[in-house]
Amino acid sequence: MKKTIIYILVVTIIPCTVYPAQQQLDDQEDAQESVQETVQEQRSYLLDIPNGKPFETLNHEKVHGYFRHFIVDTVNIWSFVFSLDTMNLLLAIIPTYLIAQHEDNRVHRQFYDCATHTNKNQPKGFPKAIVIDDGFIALPLIALGSLGWFSTSAYTRRQCQVFVSGLVWAWLTKVVFKTIVKVDGCLRPWNEEYSANYQSYGGNPSGHLTSLSFLTTYWAFQWGLPWALPMGALTLYSMAINVAVNHHYLSQVVAGASLGLVFGVAAHSAFDFVKKTDNIVVGFDATGGKPGIKLTYSF
To answer: What number is the average pLDDT over the span 176-199?
Structure first.
């Protein structure tokens, strides 16, 4: 009789205690998988995964995601443009701009004869074209921007998407400033190719230097000295040639380079923010037998 009672207890009571515990573990696993899927979706939003052949991932959803990223990047970039660090950078640049503006006419006289309305001491050929011709400037911008669509690396695609967003806003800022601001500092220098009676507006800031400085600054942060040194030298060379051929005054190329620098730093900070956000992972944790939420950060 006692054996029968014990058997009944084993058959009925033990499953009643084991099943709820097992069911709780199953529920916890399902919840954890759900959270991981949600986190993965969020990370996909940030880094535009998966990797793979570009045309395999280039579909309507990816196109929509690209422009969604552009909106997010725009907000981030402008927030960093008006950050305290950027304001400090601008304060450091202003003295250089004022000194350059003071020297504008003296430098300009080295490359222009006002008595005969002719240019002098002019560079020619390829050394001039490489930094003056729009095609030379546009080529690296288009090449790097296209990687935002066609790179097989999700990381590189996202990196280039932020680059394009920053470049667009740097260029638009330059256009708006040139269109609205009509002061003497925006007049182009005298040039034999233009009128000898009046100067035209549109010289400040230099568009070539804005684009080139942005390109140099953003990718210098991404790729380090191997990129920063040669591109930094090319930027300085471009500043010198634009002044020498009387396309811009010295202060105008300084302004363009400064504008590109500011947006390059802001775009880098925006991409760094994307990476930091992606390193934060929220998960479900049942350590110790009690359910909870686990927050991890990957350094």
So the answer is: 93
